[in-house]
Design goal:
- The complex is a heterodimer of chains A (79) and B (384).
- Chain A has a domain at 30-78.
- With 79 residues, chain A is mainly alpha-helical.
- In chain A, 82% of the residues lie in helices and 0% in strands.
- Chain A has two helices and no strands.
- The relative contact order of chain A is 0.13.
- The model of chain A has no long low-confidence stretch (mean pLDDT 73).
- The radius of gyration of chain A is 21 Å and the shape is elongated.
- Chain B is built from 14 helices and no strands.
- In chain B, helix 3 packs across helix 7 (165-205).
- Chain B has 384 residues and is mainly α.
- Chain B has one domain (3-373).
- Chain B is globular, with a radius of gyration of 20 Å.
- Chain B starts with a helix and ends with a helix.
- Classes of the chains: A mainly alpha (79), B mainly alpha (384).
- The interface between A and B is large, with 35 and 45 residues.
C-alpha cells in the first residue's frame, strides 16, 4: 500500500542550509558590526558635533552594507 | 446537496482554516519582538497582519506543491477536502488552547491524507511527494534554524560585546523590527499558499478547474485577507509560549532567531518546500536561547512542543478520516452539516474555556509560570 520511501533530497536541503546560513549569519554580523561602530563613534573623544557626525556615517555605512547584502541574497534566490 | 453548494461550503471552511492558521501562527513572526519589548504587542501583531497579507501575493510555488504533490488529484472528491479541512481546524484550535506552537501546515496535510485514505486507500496518497516535499524538509528545517540561530546569536553577542548597552539594545531592537517584518512577509508567502492549494484542489475535484490548473486570483485575494485577519486577532497563548516560555530572550537572541527563521523560510519557499514556519520559528528561538549563557531554555516545555509535532499529522489524519466516515454514513448533506455543527460547537467550548484563563496583549509578557495553571507552572521550575 505504501511505497518504499524515496531518497532524502540532500542536495535541495543543503542548498537551503547554505543559503539560509549565509544570509542570516551575514546579516546579523553586519548589523552587529554596525552597532559596535556607532557605539564607538558615540563614545569617541571630541565635540558632540563630531560624535554625531561619526554616528551618522557609521549608520549610513551599516545600512548601505545591509542593503547590498539584501540585494546579494535576492540575486542568489532569484537567479 | 448540489455540488456547487458543497463547493461553497468547502471554500468557506478553507478560508476559516486560513483564519485559524493566521492567529495560530502570529507568534512565529512577532513573539520574540513582543517578548523583548522591541514593539508593543498590538503594534507588532498589526504589522504582522499587514505583511502576511502582502506576502500572500508574492509566490505560488508552495500552493502548486499542496495542490498536486500530496494526493492524487484524479481520486480527490470535494468531501475529502472538506473532511481534511475540518480535521485541521480542530487540531489548530486544540493546540492554540494549550498554547502549543504546532504546525498548521502539517495539520492540513494530515487531515487531507486521512480523509483521502478513508476514501480511496493509501495508494491515492503521494507518499513519495510527502516524504521529499513535506517530511524531510520539516524535520531538517527546525534543526537548520536551531543551528543557524545559535551561530548568529553567538556571533552577535561576541561582536557587540564592546558596545555600550544603550546603543546595543536600541540597535538590536531596531533589527528585530526589521527581521520580524521580513518573517511576517515570509510567513504570508509560505502559509497562505497552502490554503490556496487546498481550494484549488477542491475546484479541480468539483470539475470547476481542469487538473494542474493555476490558482484563481479570487482564491489568492480571499486567502490573503483571511490570513491577515487571523493574524490581526493575535494568538496570544502561543505568542506567550514562544516568546516567554521556551526561552528567556534578550534583543540579541531575538534578532538572531528572527533573522534565521526568515532566511530558512524564504529560501525554502523559493525551492517550493512547504515547510512548517512554526517549527522553524520554534527551532530558531531554542537555538538562540541555547547558545546564550544568560538565557534559560525550558527543555521540559520544548519536549512537550516536539511531542505535539510528532502527533500532529497522525491526529489530524484520524480526525479527517473520522469526518469522512461520518459523511459516508450519514450522506453528504447530513454529514457535512453535522460536521459543521460539531466543529462550531467544539470551537465555542474551547473559546469559552480559554476565557477562564485569558491571555491578551496586556498580560502576554508577564513572567512565565503565572498562567495556564498546571501547564506553565510545571515547566517554570527550571528558571527557579
Amino acid at each position: 500500500m505504501i511505497a518504499a520511501l524515496p531518497p532524502i533530497p540532500w542536495h535541495l536541503l543543503a542548498h537551503v542550509l547554505v543559503i539560509s546560513a549565509a544570509f542570516a549569519v551575514g546579516a546579523v554580523v553586519l548589523f552587529s558590526v554596525g552597532i559596535t561602530s556607532i557605539s564607538r563613534a558615540r563614545n569617541a573623544a571630541g565635540s558632540s558635533v563630531v560624535r554625531a557626525a561619526a554616528s551618522t556615517v557609521a549608520l549610513v555605512v551599516t545600512l548601505g552594507i545591509a542593503y547590498l547584502a539584501f540585494l546579494a541574497f535576492h540575486f542568489i534566490i532569484t537567479k | 446537496m448540489s455540488s456547487t453548494f458543497l463547493l461553497i461550503i468547502v471554500v468557506i471552511v478553507a478560508i476559516g482554516f486560513d483564519f485559524t492558521n493566521g492567529f495560530h501562527d502570529t507568534a512565529n513572526a512577532v513573539a520574540p519582538t513582543i517578548a523583548t519589548g522591541a514593539m508593543k504587542p498590538r503594534t507588532a501583531v498589526l504589522m504582522g497582519s499587514v505583511l502576511n497579507m502582502i506576502g500572500a501575493f508574492l509566490s505560488l510555488k508552495v500552493a502548486a506543491t499542496v495542490a498536486s504533490g500530496i494526493v492524487s488529484q484524479a481520486s480527490v472528491i470535494v468531501p475529502v477536502v472538506f473532511a481534511g479541512l475540518v480535521g485541521a481546524i480542530a487540531w489548530n484550535i486544540s493546540t492554540w488552547y494549550f498554547g502549543l506552537p504546532s504546525s498548521s501546515s502539517h495539520a492540513l496535510i494530515g487531515g487531507v491524507i486521512g480523509a483521502m485514505m478513508a476514501h480511496a486507500g493509501g495508494s491515492a496518497v503521494h507518499w513519495s511527494g510527502i516524504s521529499t516535499k513535506v517530511l524531510f524538509p520539516s524535520i531538517a528545517a527546525p534543526l537548520f534554524a536551531f543551528a543557524i540561530a545559535a551561530l548568529a546569536s553567538w556571533a552577535s553577542r561576541s561582536l557587540t560585546k564592546s558596545s555600550d548597552d544603550d546603543t546595543r539594545s536600541v540597535g538590536l531592537r531596531a533589527g528585530q523590527i526589521g527581521s520580524s517584518a521580513l518573517l511576517s512577509l515570509a510567513h504570508g508567502t509560505n502559509d497562505a499558499q497552502k490554503t490556496m492549494g487546498v481550494i484549488t484542489l477542491a475546484l479541480i475535484a468539483n470539475g470547476t478547474l481542469s487538473a494542474n490548473a493555476a490558482t484563481p486570483k479570487w482564491t489568492i485575494v480571499a486567502c490573503a485577507i483571511a490570513i491577515g485577519a487571523g493574524t490581526a486577532i493575535g494568538g496570544w497563548r502561543i505568542i506567550r509560549t514562544l516568546g516567554k516560555g521556551l526561552s528567556s530572550l534578550g534583543p540579541t537572541q531575538g534578532f538572531a532567531a528572527q533573522m534565521s527563521s526568515a532566511s530558512v523560510i524564504l529560501t525554502s519557499t523559493h525551492f517550493g518546500l512547504p515547510l512548517s514556519t512554526t517549527y522553524v520559528a520554534t527551532g530558531a528561538v531554542m537555538g538562540a536561547g541555547a547558545s546564550s549563557p544568560e538565557s534559560v531554555v525550558r527543555w521540559k516545555l520544548a519536549l512537550r512542543v516536539v511531542a505535539a509535532w510528532f502527533i500532529t499529522i497522525p491526529t489530524a489524519a484520524l480526525c479527517g478520516a473520522a469526518i469522512f466516515y461520518v459523511i459516508r454514513v450519514c450522506g453528504t448533506t447530513a454529514g457535512v452539516l453535522l460536521s459543521c455543527v460539531a466543529l462550531v460547537a467544539y470551537a465555542s467550548i474551547i473559546f469559552l474555556r480559554s476565557r477562564q484563563d485569558r491571555i491578551n496583549a496586556a498580560n502576554v509578557n508577564e513572567a512565565w509560570g503565572k498562567h495556564f495553571e498546571g501547564f506553565e507552572q510545571s515547566t517554570a521550575e527550571q528558571e527557579a
